[in-house]
Amino acid sequence: MSQLQKGILITFEGIDGSGKSTVAKAVVERLRNDYDVLLTTEPTSSWMGDIVRKAIASDVDSLAELFLFVADHAEHIARVIKPALDEGKIVISDRYSDSRYAYQGATLAGRFEDPIGWVKRIHAGWTIPPDLTFLLLVSPSVALSRCNTRQKTTKFEDIEFMKKVQANFLKLAGEEPARFVKIDAEKDLHVMEEEVMSKIQEYIRAKI
Ligand code: TYD
Predict the structure, then answer these.
(1) What distance in Å separates the CA atoms of residue 7 and residue 204, rounded to the nearest whole number?
(2) Distance CA 118, CA 88 (A)
(3) What's the 160 CA to ligand 1 centre distance in angstroms?
(4) Is any ligand 1 atom within 6 A of the Cβ of residue 45?
(5) Centroid of ligand 1 to alpha carbon of 74 (angstroms)
(6) Are the CB atoms for 135 and 169 separated by under 8 Å?
(7) pLDDT of 2 strictly over 90
């Protein structure tokens, strides 16, 4: 088992129905052969994550909702992400801060002049930026049809909203091309898995 000096934080992002959770799980299984890997999610599986899920399911104010997501993120960093990175693990998070920038950047449009910048500034100075972010891109109509075939649904599964969120994700990727890796999520799962694995291996080789 290879131990990295300091861990690596890798995140998976994309609109609902992009398939990021499936790809993340498959990649984690493969990385586990060689590395100490931790798979985690946002919203988290803690009681704070439960509150976030309750908020999403209700008609909560968008700003209140943002702060619940941010509180969950702070707790996630303190209790899970930072300790695991300090132990040299590869930490894979299924959604992370870019979900806030993209989703709440959309829900808060109209309330702030630059909602993405405003949400980013709330994270400044304490969040841990990811080393690599895989952005799974799929057309919102394909994503929506995938969402409709599974039981779990959220209020964010609306085609016009999904278009805005995807545009926000693309804007974020454009601002940080070295961190973001765009993946065509309409491809076969195995093809995506190979692409992601080879990028991670390339990143690890460059880091060691
Ligand atoms: P998640 O459980 O990851 O849903 P899915 O598995 O369908 O991707 O996230 C729940 C919803 O919360 C999802 O619609 C995305 C949204 N979300 C935000 O709006 N902001 C955030 O910061 C995060 C982490 C998620």
Answers:
(1) 10
(2) 32
(3) 16
(4) no
(5) 16
(6) yes
(7) no
In-domain check, residue 2: no
Write out pLDDT tens, residues 114-144: 999 999 999 999 999 999 999 999 999 999 8
Relative orientation angle of helices 159-175 and 115-123, to the nearest 10 degrees: 60
Atom 22, ligand 1: which residue's CA is nearest? 100
**3-25 per-position pLDDT tens digit:** 666 899 999 999 999 999 999 99
Domain of 166 in residue numbering reads as 8-207
- Rounded to the nearest angstrom, the distance between the alpha carbon of 94 and the centre of ligand 1 is 9
* Separation of alpha carbons 175 and 42, rounded Å: 22
Whether residue 60 is contained in a domain is answered as yes
- pLDDT at residue 129, rounded to an integer: 98
What's the pTM value of the predicted model, to 2 decimals? 0.96
- Is the Cβ atom of 98 under 6 angstroms away from ligand 1? no
Q: Read off the CATH number of the domain in which 96 is found.
A: 3.40.50.300
Rounded CA-CA distance 129/122 in Å is 13
3, part of any domain:
no
